[in-house]
């Protein structure tokens, strides 16, 4: 009795994409082979064949990577790792990684980098209040600011109010010199830096003026209009 092994074949549209798809000295290809150790991957010209229990996933992976390259994205080991995770979770990386959240002028657009960030952005867009839990450096504040700027650009809101916790649980500020803005400015600076990165030069004076009247030392990021308030809390 013989058991046939499932196969999946992908034809990459254009041999010029193969070098970027496989990586320098086949570095990306070797990483894929390690991630799908039970599946044999054979490359001939611009044809990639996968044989094994996860051949369908490998086929989808190379289709998604090819699509990213055709849309002008670059590949490295970090991005490849994220794409593999998304394919395993039945998420389309080419949709997640190429969808602009906000774009200002000719600058590089702000985009989600993971499926979790994409779900977070969609939740902010679809709900009045969104709570996000996660370790530092995972994009919670950055993406909240990006969504606020997008809402301001689309004129769905008239004002952005940036707020942030001044202390962590169990800590005290003690005495800090200066007025209220001087006391909380160090804690809000990362949000203002994100705003300056995302807004155009014409809007930057407005952001600077907002430092005097659009901030408060609480635990919420918010952008408002006369009809509703949208909050994001860490």
Question: Helix count?
Answer: 9
Form type: elongated
Overall pLDDT, averaged? 77
Regarding quaternary structure, what we see is single chain
SSE order, one letter for each helix or strand: EHHEEHHHEEHEHEHHEEE
Total domains: 2
Using the 3D structure, state the CATH architecture of the largest domain.
3-Layer(aba) Sandwich
Broad CATH class of the largest domain: Alpha Beta
Report on the biggest sheet: 5 strands, mixed
State the end-to-end distance. Answer: 58 Å
Quick recap:
With 234 residues, the protein is α+β, with helices and mostly antiparallel strands. It has 9 helices and 10 strands.
Walk me through this protein's architecture.
- This protein has 234 residues and is α+β, with helices and mostly antiparallel strands.
- The chain has two domains: 7-96, Ribosomal Protein S8, Chain: A, domain 1, CATH 3.30.1370; 105-233, Rossmann fold, CATH 3.40.50.300.
- Helices cover 43% and strands 17% of the residues.
- It is built from nine helices and ten strands.
- The strands form three sheets. A five-stranded mixed β-sheet has the order 6-10-9-7-8. The protein has a three-stranded antiparallel β-sheet with strand order 1-3-2, covered by helices on one side. It has a two-stranded antiparallel sheet with strand order 4-5.
- The protein is elongated, with a radius of gyration of 23 Å.
- Mean pLDDT is 77; it is low at 210-234.
């Amino acid at each position: 009795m013989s058991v046939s092994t499932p196969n999946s074949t992908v034809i990459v549209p254009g041999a010029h994409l193969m070098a970027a798809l496989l990586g320098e000295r086949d570095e990306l290809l070797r990483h894929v082979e390690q991630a799908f150790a039970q599946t044999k991957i054979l490359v001939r010209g611009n044809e990639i064949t996968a044989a094994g229990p996860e051949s369908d996933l490998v086929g989808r992976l190379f289709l998604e990577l090819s699509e990213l390259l055709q849309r002008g994205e670059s590949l490295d080991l970090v991005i490849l790792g994220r794409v593999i995770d998304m394919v395993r979770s039945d998420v389309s990386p080419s949709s997640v990684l190429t969808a602009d959240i906000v774009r200002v002028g000719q600058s590089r657009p702000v985009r989600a980098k993971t499926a979790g960030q994409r779900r977070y952005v969609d939740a902010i867009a679809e709900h009045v209040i969104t709570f996000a839990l996660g370790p530092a450096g995972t994009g919670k504040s950055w993406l909240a600011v990006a969504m606020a700027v997008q809402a301001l650009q689309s004129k769905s809101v008239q004002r952005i109010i940036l707020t942030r916790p001044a202390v962590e649980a169990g800590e005290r500020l003690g005495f800090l010199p200066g007025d209220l803005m001087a006391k909380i400015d160090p804690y809000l600076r990362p949000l203002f830096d994100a705003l300056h990165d995302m807004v155009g030069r014409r809007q930057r004076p407005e952001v600077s003026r907002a430092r005097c009247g659009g901030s408060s030392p609480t635990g919420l990021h918010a952008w408002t209009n006369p009809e509703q308030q949208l909050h994001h809390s860490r």
